[in-house]
Design goal:
This protein has helices at 5-24, 27-42, 57-64, 104-112, 115-124, 131-148, 152-155, 167-174, 222-230, 247-257, 277-295, 308-315, 319-328, 331-341, 348-356, 358-411, 415-482, 498-534, 586-655, 659-689, 692-698, and strands at 45-51, 82-87, 97-101, 159-162, 190-197, 206-210, 234-240, 263-269, 302-305, 492-496, 565-569. By secondary structure, the chain is an alpha/beta fold. The strands form two sheets. A nine-stranded mixed sheet has the order 4-3-5-2-6-1-7-8-9, sandwiched between helices. It has a two-stranded antiparallel ribbon with strand order 10-11. The protein is globular, with a radius of gyration of 32 Å. Helix 5 runs antiparallel to helix 19, helix 16 runs antiparallel to helix 20 (659-689) and helix 17 (415-482) runs antiparallel to helix 18 (498-534). The chain has a domain at 433-643. Helix 10 (247-257) links the parallel strand 7 and strand 8.
């Protein structure tokens, strides 16, 4: 089957319209519509595959991509790299790969591991051991230096590119392998791997991202994983049938569920390892469904089951695969197929392909793209294109009406007056053009100031949320200490950080909603002001530019406060009276907690604020682009009038009272009017075709 066939048809219909419009409009507008076509070509569905180590992510991806040995699945990676499989991406090579290395700043942060935070944490958190993480980072750096030798410094910040990709080559960049093994020569310093594929079963350009295992104890790349997840549109969470839903998985699902404009598909892999498919698979699916509903009742997840290994057996042509298919193609498999899918395919490979569950995954992904992310993308682009068309139509109508007035004056033997009127009209347009430009500049300034104020307000609100958490913690600790039995004053306090995380997340959501609403009101006010400036010049034909379908209506990020609990060492009150009961200095204990919070939360807060800024800025830029439609319309009207004035003034000065020359000029202007009228009609027809329902029918 082809993934997202409907979306492919809509994209093709939209591209055909854009190409046709580009060929129809005047020279000044062609570049703009070519830019919209480039935006359409640059879009790709982004799918992130997530799961714990040993859940079978790489095997799943190989089967999903129809290539049994693309990603290393039999190597136990010491660490792993975010790998983007770029399928049918416009402008990409037909094959091969590119591997980007960390630059010096990012590499230093990784290998140093923010030593100030580690040192403070070790001082104030008794029992917290960062030795493993330090050992891993130091070993990673030592391994990189040993393997790369004198080339190590020069590789940072560079990249390697290849025209042909092999599994062995890929292992050198994404898998560290065994301590003394050759695979993974560059893995430690590789920031990102991009693989280029052409696959006929993907109807739309798609980027499939393989992320590091979420339970990998080596956490230095978590930030890069989160950035990749934030950029994704669909999440496929791969679970293992033997341990289908751990607490780590549930925590991950909660994070993903916050991104309400994105879809999550859960795939329970490795059902081939269950004793009895027919009874075990429904039991596992039922258990996963019940636990997810209990943990995240507000979200209905799509939950599927299958086996990437079955899909691999169906793909392979070697003798070993044939023997395994023969051994496994038994009554139990047939019963499972009959009970689950209602039929048993006649072909052996088809039976394993169906049992793999990969077709169901592709069908669900296709539906999500067709009716979810793909539909949203087309809707946003359509809103921009239709606003642009409205502006071009308005400018063209005004030009047509101006030419008509000129024809009437020339025909009435008053060509000189026609030129004077054209000069006055041009002066009026240019004055309005300058006022509109000044207004848009003021809008840009105010919007920039608003974004800065919103960020500052967010930082203040987050600090307030932390302060409120600390105040609540003080009350809680006072109550716990007051209730402690004599002689049982604790030396360590276990703190639940869930309330803090909830405070931070709700604060961010509220602040984004407030910032979005304020931004939308500001954009609406500036749009109204711009339209009021140009309305008198267009006699009721001013374009009805709107702020429909702006992106980033809500904000959610996979960046979050990961730590669930905190063990805080208490600080004793100083006293020389050794016979007195030991007392806790609560102020100093809370001050230690405050230092830990400042050190550990500040980096996460900065990253969240950066993601917050990016989302709100994207919405602001989309709104400002609508204002620029009006600017471009005024530019087009003014430039066309200026060009006609330059051309016609010279002709009229040479005509004198030559009736035949005047007649030819009138005929030429009438022909120009007809061209403009046809352009208006053609643009109006294309605009009606670009209505979403009409576009779907055309597709």
């Amino acid at each position: 089957m082809q993934i997202a066939r409907q979306q492919r048809k809509e994209i093709d219909a939209l591209r055909e319209c854009l190409t046709s419009i580009e060929e129809t409009v005047g020279r000044g507008s062609r570049e703009v519509f070519a830019g919209y076509r480039a935006r359409l070509d640059a879009w790709a569905a982004r799918v992130a595959v997530i799961g714990q180590v040993k859940a079978g992510k790489s095997s799943f991806l190989n089967a999903f991509l129809g290539q049994s040995d693309l990603l290393p699945s039999d190597v136990n990676p010491w660490t792993s790299v975010i790998t983007n499989v770029r399928v049918n991406i416009h402008g990409d090579p037909a094959g091969g790969a590119r591997f980007d290395f960390f630059d010096e700043a990012a590499w230093d942060e990784i290998v140093d591991g923010r030593s100030d935070v580690r040192q403070l944490t070790e001082q104030l958190l008794p029992g917290f051991d960062t030795g493993l993480l330090r050992q891993q980072t130091e070993a990673m750096k030592a391994r990189a230096q040993e393997r790369l030798g004198r080339y190590y410094p020069s590789l940072l910040g560079s990249h390697h590119a290849y025209d042909i990709l092999t599994p062995e080559l890929l292992q050198r960049y994404v898998c560290a392998g065994d301590a003394d093994g050759e695979p993974g020569r560059y893995a430690a310093i590789t920031r990102e791997a991009n693989l280029y594929l052409r696959r006929p079963d993907f109807a739309v350009p798609t980027i499939v991202t393989d992320t590091p295992g979420v339970n990998d104890p080596f956490l230095v790349r978590d930030e890069f994983t989160c950035r990749s997840l934030d950029a994704s549109d669909v999440f496929i969470v791969v679970l293992s049938a033997h341990q289908a839903l751990t607490e780590v998985d549930i925590a991950l699902m909660r994070i993903l569920a916050r991104q309400k404009d994105k879809d999550v598909i859960v795939f329970v892999n490795r059902i081939d390892e269950l004793d009895d498919y027919d009874t075990d698979v429904p039991r596992v699916l039922g258990d996963v469904t019940r636990r997810l509903r209990a943990a995240i009742p507000e979200v209905e997840f799509t939950i599927l089951a299958g086996s990437a290994w079955f899909a691999d057996l169906a793909l392979r042509d070697d003798d070993e695969a044939a023997l395994m298919r023969e051994a496994l193609d038994d009554a139990a498999l047939h019963a499972y197929l009959r009970d689950t899918f209602g039929h048993v395919p006649a072909d052996e490979r088809d039976r394993f392909r169906l049992a793999s569950g990969l077709d169901e995954v592709k069908q669900n992904l296709s539906m999500v793209i067709d009716h979810g992310i793909g539909s949203q993308q087309v809707a946003r682009l359509l809103a921009d294109v239709r606003a642009e068309i409205a502006g071009v139509i308005a400018a063209t109508r005004r030009e047509r009406d101006s030419v008509q007035v000129q024809v009437q004056r020339i025909s009435g033997d008053n060509a000189g007056a026609g030129v004077a009127a054209l000069e006055a009209e041009l002066a009026q347009l240019q004055a309005a053009r300058l006022r509109l430009e000044s207004t848009c500049d003021a809008a840009d300034h105010d919007i920039g100031a608003l974004l800065g104020q919103t960020r500052a307000g967010l930082e203040e609100a987050l600090n307030g949320a932390i302060a409120a958490f600390l105040a609540d913690t003080r009350c809680d600790l006072e109550a716990r200490l007051a209730g402690a039995a004599a002689g049982q004053v604790p030396t360590r306090l276990d703190l639940d950080l869930a309330p803090l995380r909830e405070r931070l997340e709700s604060t961010i959501a509220e602040r984004f909603a407030d910032g979005r609403d304020t931004l939308d009101r500001m954009l609406g006010n500036w749009l109204d002001e711009c339209q009021s400036l140009i309305a008198p010049l267009f006699a009721g034909d001013a374009p009805a530019v709107t702020l429909d379908a702006l992106p980033q209506a809500a904000f959610a990020s996979t960046l979050t406060l990961v730590r669930q609990r905190l063990e805080l060492g208490v600080v004793n009150a100083r006293t020389w009276a050794f016979w007195r009961q030991r007392r806790i200095d609560l102020d100093r204990t809370l001050d230690a907690l405050r230092q830990i919070a400042a050190a550990e939360l500040r980096p996460a807060m900065l990253k969240l604020m950066t993601a917050f800024d990016a989302a709100l800025s994207e919405r602001a830029q989309a709104g400002q682009d609508r204002l620029q439609v009006l600017q471009r319309m005024m530019d087009t009207a003014s430039d066309e009038r200026s060009e006609r004035l330059r051309s016609d003034r010279a002709r009229i000065e040479q005509l004198g009272r030559d009736p035949e020359a005047l007649r030819r000029m009138v005929h030429r202007l009438q022909g120009q009017m007809e061209v403009l009228e046809r352009r208006i009609q053609y643009l109006a027809i294309n605009d009606s075709h670009l209505g979403k329902t009409t576009l779907a029918r055309a597709a």
